[in-house]
Amino acid sequence: MRIIALLILVIPGILAMIGIKLMRDTMFQELQAPFPFLWLQFFTGLFLVVFGIWFIAGFVRYRDRKNNKVAFITPKEEEKSSSSSSS
C-alpha cells in the first residue's frame, strides 16, 4: 500500500516539475516543440504546477483527516460536528 501511495504522489510531483521547467523556458524565451506560442507554454506550465501542488496537498490533507491529525477545523467541518452532536 505504501508503494501505491508513493506512486500516487510521485506522478503529480513530476508533472509539477515539468510545469516549472516550461515556465522557466518561457522566461528565457525558449519555445518547446509541442507549443506554438510562448504564452500557451507558460499557462500549461502554470496549470501543471498548480495541479501538482493541489493534488499533493489534497492527498496529505485527506490522510491527515483520516488519521485525526488535522490541526484546525474548517467552518464546514464545524457545522457538521455541531449538527450531529445536537441530534
TrEMBL record:
InterPro entries: Uncharacterised_YqzF. It holds the Pfam family DUF2627. The chain crosses the membrane at residues 40-60. Keywords: Membrane, Transmembrane, Transmembrane helix. This is DUF2627 domain-containing protein.
